């Protein structure tokens, strides 16, 4: 049974990844292209400032993969594989929860686990470290940003597991409704404490040294030695639109995993009904 559920989780994840890619390709990709164009223009303006100041300008090497390949095959394959990975993780979590969360139907449990995955794997980390287009960010902070994001994600997952266990422990004392409210409140408080303890990306040492102390590392206007703006800051509309589409893509991914997996899991978990015994023909011989 476990193997059947995990295989179906991988299939549901692949479907979710494919749907999320189609959405992202149509809506988010133009925002990524706009971000790349901004980065190219800003780099050219920075190079001009460096040349004017007598500084050496490093030559940029060619891209290994063209922009067309990156925007289509690269992102598509990446999102499908990511969907499969999330589907496998979802199926393992679902299998562990079976029989341990009360009398919940197979379909309902699938939607609850998918909702928990979306909340802990993306929404909560997103609130602390919202998504940026790939071209935006200080290259010297990539490692620090990755560690902080993974730390926030791991904390969100572990705290959600703790909240579920707390709710189960309180259920016998407070009832299902009050136990759920208490566990949810405890989760919000604990997540808020973790968010307050972790630094913002703008507070990283490399960003403070280069740009000063800010809440994020979204590029600010580029200025010359006299303080005049020679290139604008990153467009706020592009950033906000990209973040909204990124969040919606994750909603599509986890929603598809839950909705596709739910009926398949119910078929695996519901034993086939026994065939009805053949009825004996009791009619009088005269009526046959």
Report on this structure:
This protein has helices at residues 2-52, 67-97, 106-128, 142-174, 176-197, 205-211, 236-269; strands at residues 222-223, 229-231. A hairpin with a 5-residue loop joins strand 1 (222-223) and strand 2 (229-231). It is 70% helix and 2% strand. It has 288 residues and is mainly α. It has two domains: 1-56 and 69-136 and 235-269, no CATH class; 138-217, no CATH class. It has a two-stranded antiparallel sheet with strand order 1-2. The chain is elongated. The two termini are 48 Å apart.
Short description:
With 288 residues, the chain is mainly alpha-helical. It has helices at residues 2-52, 67-97, 106-128, 142-174, 176-197, 205-211, 236-269; strands at residues 222-223, 229-231.
Which strands sit side by side, in order, in the main sheet? 1-2
Q: What assembly state would you assign to the polypeptide chains in this entry?
A: single chain
Shape: elongated
**In the residues, how many domains can be counted?**
2
Bin the strand percentage: under 5%
Largest sheet: 2 strands, antiparallel
Distance N to C terminus? 48 Å
Transmembrane segments: 75-97, 109-127, 147-167, 179-198, 242-262
Protein name: Cobalt transporter
Pfam families: CbtA
Keywords: Membrane, Transmembrane, Transmembrane helix
